[in-house]
Design brief:
globular; 5-stranded mixed β-sheet; 16% strand; single chain; alpha/beta; 334 residues
């Protein structure tokens, strides 16, 4: 792409100039956050046996957002191990995003470009409850495609990163009760003929983050003319702005934040799925799962709404479905 074409693509970005500064700062701070090593785009290997196992698991699972343990404030093996960490290491290790505007992002207007957003507020609340200090957190930047692996291998204690609870993921990690309700939606230029998740996506280049529920849905439905995978959601917005793709499919909550960054794009059509975000943890960390669910009970009563109003109400509204915390349900035998 020559310089003239790039300049043309960048006209009319509005607030995205600030986001470009944010991204530059994020790169400057990347050495402070242990990043995951690439694993080939997060795609599963193992052939037909893996596919068969996943299909069987999906058929046996319904309402994945209800497949969690009942709340408890008791400590156990996992929490004891976290509390036993010494000195500067006495922190909860949490995988987060640092590029999702209003969810988990580095604010260039704060000292040290601090991590801020709706997910980050929840992390601080968890740290306050378990360790008595909201700042007792070691943040790790985790690409979308590597969230499950980071939890499963123990690189982090949990992931709080707009992570949708799905039947497929429940085979590898456990989730808390849901803390946010959303759905998949299409983002495209205002001038585009694309009208939503329909036949207008045919023959179009559509971007989604590898390992995301959007990527899986697009791959299964074969809606896109060409499906483009990237490590992180923000990469899709950049490709859209450069004219390298024609549309983005992602969570409606994230799409709304991306539209807020760039006045030349908009949401197309209505959300076409119902999804729930949860805190991902190791399957055997039962005391931590129950404790996070107990924290969420308290957070829904005091804290959730203030965080929503601060970060998300401007893009999602104050009387929409996502503007209230979802009611939790738990396993009957837990």
């Amino acid at each position: 792409m020559n310089a003239r074409r790039v300049r043309a693509a960048l006209r009319g970005w509005g607030g995205v100039g600030a986001m470009a500064v944010l991204c530059a700062l994020a790169l400057a701070f990347v050495l402070l956050l242990p990043l995951s090593r690439p694993n080939g785009g997060g795609q599963d290997v193992g052939g037909q046996s893996v596919t068969t196992a996943r299909q069987a698991r999906a058929k046996a699972c319904t309402d994945p957002e209800k497949q969690t343990l009942s709340p408890s404030g008791a400590d156990g093996r996992t929490i004891d191990a976290i509390k036993a960490r010494k000195g500067d290491d006495r922190k909860i290790i949490v995988g987060v995003d640092q590029n999702s505007y209003r969810w988990g992002y580095r604010n260039p207007n704060t000292k040290g470009a601090e991590l801020e957003g709706f997910d980050i507020d929840l992390v601080h609340r968890i740290a306050q409850d378990i360790l008595g200090d909201p700042d007792a957190v070691q943040f790790k930047a985790i690409p979308t495609s590597q969230r499950t692996e980071a939890v499963r291998t123990g690189r982090v204690d949990m992931v709080v990163r707009t992570m949708t609870i799905t039947c497929d993921r429940l085979g590898d990690v456990a989730f808390s009760a849901p803390y946010f309700k959303t759905g998949q939606q299409v983002l495209a230029p205002k001038s585009s003929s694309i009208t939503g998740y329909d036949d207008t996506l045919a023959h179009q280049r559509v971007c989604a983050a590898a390992g995301s529920t959007a990527y899986t849905r697009l791959d299964d439905d074969k809606k896109a003319g060409k499906l483009v995978a990237v490590p992180n959601q923000l990469d899709c917005l950049v490709r859209l702005q450069l004219g390298e793709v024609d549309a983005v499919v992602t969570d409606a909550a994230l799409a709304a934040s991306q539209a807020a960054q760039d006045p030349t794009v908009e949401l197309k059509g209505a959300p076409f799925t119902t999804d729930y975000y949860g805190v991902a943890m190791k399957k055997d960390a039962t005391d931590l799962i129950r404790r996070v669910n107990q924290i969420l009970v308290q957070y829904r009563a005091s804290g959730w709404q203030a965080s929503y109003d601060k970060w998300l109400s401007a893009t999602l509204g104050t009387d929409s479905g996502p503007s209230k915390p979802p009611a939790p349900e738990y396993q009957r035998k837990s």
